[in-house]
Specification:
The structure is a homotetramer.
Chain A (H helix, E strand, L loop, with lengths): L1 E3 L7 H10 L8 E3 L4 H10 L11 H10 L8 E4 L7 H9 L3 E4 L7 H13 L4 E3 L7 H11 L6 E9 L13 H6 L2 H4 L4 H17 L3 E9 L10 E8 L4 E7 L10 E6 L2 E6 L5 E6 L4 E5 L7 H5 L11 H20 L6 H4 L4 H19 L5 E2 L3
Parallel strand pairs in A: 1-2, 1-3, 3-4, 4-5, 6-9
Antiparallel strand pairs in A: 6-10, 7-8, 7-14, 8-9, 10-11, 11-12, 12-13
Helix pairs in contact in A: 1-11, 4-5, 5-13, 6-9, 9-13
Chain lengths: ~375, ~375, ~375, ~375
């Protein structure tokens, strides 16, 4: 694995590295960690990489890695730059034979996302998009239970992602994370909705197995002077007729990262939240609520496949993240060996998720400006 | 106290009686418990009332009670009939000098509610509307903290009331509660939104101290054949510019009565839910979340005034309900003695709350049918 | 009902009154609320009692009430004085034909408790002992599930009652509750163990259906100058071979009244705590934990019988307390009508519980002083 | 790093590897994974190790690694075998210049533990003992708060470790984990107390900063035919006079791994449990309880140093485990560079913790057999 981005001051680069390291099956061997070659060198050194494989630009990296012998060359690149720097490196990597792990949202625009999928298809390369939350074992459990129809037809979905860290104009301080996330040039047309609304949207569609058909959005910029939305709520309609509410805010002072999902069907439903990630509440119309817990024998194969520790030893964000890396790696390994990956391994977020995420951003921004209540969800 | 309604098969009548009994300051001495005189008699007998004061009709009751000597006559009537039977008895009672406790929603229409307020004013009578949830001590605590400005300007409100009991067509069984609540003739133009959406709305406005100015509603009838909404979500704007989400559903299979409120300001906010009614989470931008708990010395006078047991001994729904009765009674006693009631006693839901609740129903139904996103909230 | 004790400054008297009032089937009509006749008068007035039935001494009260005609006279007395004033009034009441509700612990000594039971038997009178926590519906549910053998043989019990209110020498202030509870003359030979340890002990035996056979106690007086234990832990053995841990402390700063019980059998077990009194966690060896909740149809008849509000509307301490009053009253009514009370009504704490509670106090104090690890539990 | 043990069927070996991998600063390069050379080879292969560095015996491993050049040779060995195979390999490693990471309990006997410490001292080598739970950031936070005296003198400690997985005679199935843990030859003289009681004991002493002086133990073998204790409770006295309760059981059907600690001082205290590992409840005598959460700015340097993700993104068991590896590695690196490690890095469990753990096992077993209540805690 090689990494593009993730140098000093970055948050998500380190997360990707820890996630990739965890299982001992992926090795970081090359990288271009900053647009500043000096900083890239320094980062590479701190990461114990050979200086030969720390590059001054991502273009160099892809060109030079490509020239390495098969058994030395990296298999894939992990792109962990701000949103505006996803498309070009991903495109170059895919066109030069590298598989790609990409942080979300996939690109700066829906158009780019669609293009990237095309390029990947044409070059027969894999894309993995790190929508962290679908990596949690209890989320896998929930999806399969709904898929099996245990709750009957799904009727109501509530998904939320409240954060408080942008309650003040943090972007005017030295905080790099806040700066690029509130800058339309680097972040795209949406702020909170792009950064965390996409996670909520992805989680809801992934677990319910439903597709959004119509939305009604209300985006707000609460902190004065901010250029993008930092708060918003969306009403949704799904393809089976179910209704939804999604809200995502970065000005909910005192909130951390408690993304939460509730899905209700005819006979029962599920509730899950990141702050208690190893529990899945399973509710029933006329039976006691059950608490499904990570690591137990009674779980389905998807939940078990994505678990490392026995029940009661909590797994967290990094493990969920690592599940995507591991499943991507298992799928890649199967591909390299001309085997068919098993269903559990194939279950990682891919270009299609990325495209729906970009569509969410574009639709939600358009709907927020519209006078009509409902807008069709266009992909 | 006399009661109108609340005979066999009724749920809320018994709640009113227990709430009124709890503190030993209110005595039920008369009633008309059913439109069927036999049933009314029987109910009165079971409630240990003198047969002389159990009436065949509410008209009889008001007429005959009025003729009793001052020191025997009831001071107020408690009206606990279905919505379509609120206005007439309340009007009659008020016009004949009785104060009134009324179950919510106040009336069948906004017009009736406005009229009732007028009548009460003209006759100098009190109206208490039993919006249960604002009777909880921790809700009193929250309101006062926000009022004092501890969290700065309020920016985002999330209020929800999920229930699951109408997940099936229960109204087609013998269930009386389900039958009248889903019948437009008895319930009015809204189903879930009238029954529980009004509670959520009232709670949000009460705690935040804000008034709704615009709404965008999406009401659904999920169970086939049902005549009123049983599920819905509403986007809101408040008079200070804050945004809100409200959802209320009776088809969330597996949910009980977990009404929950979150209010976020610039510096922090609060979270409260009925399932953990004695805790108030107080969140701060950069300090640990605090758990305020009923019964502690550090609480404000409004919370303390509405508490009966020491910290850690949970108070529940009946105590919250009883707080409204107690505060109404204290206010009434002050009035009868020409004293000014203290602020803590005056803090019970009244006709103004009832009017806003009826306005909520009418606005939300209209907005749900509108093509435009935003409708002004008209009272 | 008549009340002995419970005047100004008392805590538990008001609780008894609210509990008795709640269901509207018990009426407080007489009382002797204080050893000071003036204070007693005043309290009676505030409680809206006829001055004729507010007595200067409990002896007067029992003598004079006895002389009243059958249909006016009280049926029972409720004794809510400090521990040293339980025996004499209870004895007199029983011997004069009154049934008795008694606050726990039953008496000052085990001997007195045994005597009182004898007297009640001889006079065919009922004793109800208000061990509040066994009045909770979920506790009823738990007991019946264990009784049915759903969890197999019980193996391990953990019961705890942590409070923090005596973390400082509160008894040296004006706090009346603290003063008598830490005074051996009024409280008896145990402090925390008598006050709350007995509750924990009663809860454990009630729910498990087991009897303690051996104990090993460690009682401590943590706050300097205090005369009784304010903290302690006990190891227990039960008659089926199960082991237990009990701890009760009043110096756990920051704790309120979170009495909690866990019982583990071969196949599963239960967990309940007062802070979440309407939930019962039911754990299984190889199935998800279930959350049983007050007010649901799936509960057993004992849980349902002791519930007033629909699922999700929390019931609390006063309702649990009221359940004992209600069941006592139902049993009394059956007795007065020569009917057999149903099992659910008979299920209130009685003299046998009181005797075991007093035995607990005497055994635990003796064991704490013993050098040997295990002492037989003697009744 | 080289590993001894942790081949097929082992649980804790994989945990050690993931923990060591996580931060990318430790590389597994050699190992002897099984006493069966074939299995060892196979495991090494699956772990992507060079076949040259996968050894047939731990003796070979230490001898041959020692002969490698400085910059190739491993710095330390990680010993993850059952308890009876700790001492010999650790001794050999230390005597040959390797630092050692050792799973707990440290050895089979207290004598061995003392010897091992001596050997490490003589050879100037580090020992890290993986008492997982002290690696959690909120545990670090708690320890420092108590150390600073924020809660005054500590008075009462409650620590518990309930598990349910040995509720049946699992050791009679193929379950390797159950087999060795219940076998005195491989596990030592204690079962549950050695396996998880030591964790509870270590956590209590670590957080409180206190040392146990006296104990009173009650160990039980609940499952028929089992050779070691599977359940037990202990009363404790600490060197400042505080009292404690510890219980550890493996027959609490339905429990997972919810180790929990409560410490109460004069002014407040803390509560932490693994199931909600990222929260620390901080209780106060007369202020609201606070919820300290991993990843926040308001935490102390020890908590922050042991955290990888932003607040709200849960860290779990593997991260806690990895903290010990990271701190050990940082200390080792400082040592290799003749620098002084900073206090936060030095804060990992070492030989002294291991010795106290072995003392706990020996004392607790002896006390359980004693007739006297209290036994001095001897090290």
């Amino acid at each position: 694995m090689g990494m593009i981005g993730g140098g000093p001051g970055a948050f998500i680069g380190a997360v990707h590295r820890m996630a990739a390291n965890l299982d001992g099956d992926i090795e970081l061997v090359s990288g271009c960690f900053s647009s500043d070659p000096k900083k890239s060198k320094q980062a590479g050194k701190e990461l114990h990489l050979s200086a030969l494989r720390v590059y001054a630009s991502y273009k160099d990296m892809i060109r030079l890695e490509k020239n390495l012998p098969d058994n030395e060359r990296i298999d894939f690149v992990s792109i962990v730059t701000p949103n505006h720097l996803h498309f070009e490196p991903a495109k170059l990597a895919l066109e030069n034979g590298f598989h790609v792990v990409l942080d979300k949202p996939m690109t700066l625009t829906l158009k780019e996302a669609n293009q990237l999928k095309e390029i990947a298809l044409k070059n027969d390369r894999l894309i993995c998009l790190t929508h962290t939350y679908t990596g949690y074992p209890m989320i896998k459990q929930a999806r399969q239970m709904i898929k099996k129809g245990l709750f009957g037809t799904i009727r109501r979905i509530v998904v939320e992602y409240p954060q408080g860290w942008l309650s003040t104009a943090l972007e005017n301080t030295e905080q790099k994370q806040a700066a690029w996330r509130t800058d339309p040039k680097r972040s795209g047309i949406a702020g909170a909705m792009g950064d965390i609304g996409t996670h909520a949207f992805n989680l809801a569609e992934y677990v319910s197995g439903l597709s959004t058909t119509k939305i009604c959005a209300d985006l707000n910029t609460v902190v004065k002077g901010r250029k993008l939305d930092d708060d918003g709520a969306v009403l949704l309609k799904f393809d089976n007729g179910a209704s939804g509410v999604l809200f995502a805010t970065q000005i909910a002072a005192g909130e951390e990262n408690n993304i939460k999902l509730r899905v209700y069907g005819e006979k029962g439903g599920i509730e899950w939240k990141q702050e208690d990630a190893n529990s899945l509440l399973v509710k029933w119309l006329s039976k006691p609520t059950e608490i499904y817990r990570t690591g137990n024998d009674y779980l389905n194969s998807f939940a078990k496949h994505n678990t490392r520790t026995p029940a009661g030893h909590p797994e967290g964000y990094l493990e969920a993240f690592a599940n995507h890396y591991r499943n991507f790696a298992l799928t890649l390994k199967a591909k390299l060996n001309n085997r068919k990956a098993k269903a559990e391994s194939l279950d990682f977020p891919n270009a299609d998720d990325g495209i729906r995420g970009m569509a969410f951003i574009e639709n939600v921004v358009a709907s927020s400006k519209a006078k009509e209540k409902w807008s069709d969800f266009k992909v």
